[in-house]
Amino acid sequence: MANPQVRFTWNIHWSCNFRCSYCFFDGHWAEYGRRNVYQTVEQWMGHWRRIYEKYGRCYLTINGGEPFAYPNFVELMVQVSALHWPINVTTNTSLHLKEFVERVDPAKVSISISFHPQYHKINEFLKTVKFLRDHKANIGCINFVAWPPFLNDLSDYIRRFQEIGESLKVIPFIGAYEGVNYPDHYNEEQKKILGLSDNWLESKRHKGMLCRAGNQSALLLPTGKVARCGQIGDRYLIGDFFQEGFSLMKEPMPCDEQFCPCDEWKVIPDEKPPEKAGAWLP
Known about the structure:
The chain has about 280 residues and is of the alpha/beta class. Helix content is about 25%, strand content about 20%. It starts with 6 loop residues before the first strand and ends in a 28-residue tail after the last strand. Mean pLDDT is about 90; it is low at about 265-280.
């Protein structure tokens, strides 16, 4: 069967049982949460069947908020993955993992798990990783945000994961902390761990280049509205997922965003990055 040619990032709802200080939504959960639109599993399946009829099997990445806090989320994954896969779900691991590993096909649905020291004790989190491995869950990444207060323990965290044969994906914190801007303020050792080369920031500047976001990929928001990508968000909506006539853009368009740390133009898994600036299209 051919690989999927379309990807949806499904921001399933703005709701989470954690309140991490470095989250994009810190201080805005109530504001965003008022916009959530909740649908039943049956309603979602009607939408995803329409997408299947139009684009075939799609690749889905699901985040939030905390996806597992969405009503009937595991059942939703069982049914959606009958049509669309691979699916990758990012989770804080606090909800419904036992039901998930018992019911969801790991060949179709993987999970990327996030280690949050504000809420997780390292020993307990490592037990969760072992539980998932023992139950044959497909773990994509183990994510960790290098928020400045965590930096003193960073080397120890990396070591603890290595001791059980796991690797920690350390993600740069982008923003201000105590009046200092990051990632600029990381020291050389920290930049090395984070994979931040001297030209990292410049390599994420894509303004003016043609981009497949909105054409072969899109961001599905909790309102049902669809944006080109997560960097642009509400500023460039391309349609309403809940409407019968929804479709993606017919062709790529230039990017008007200054900074794209997520590289959302990398639409299809394993697609190679461009050889040079401006060469994103065949």
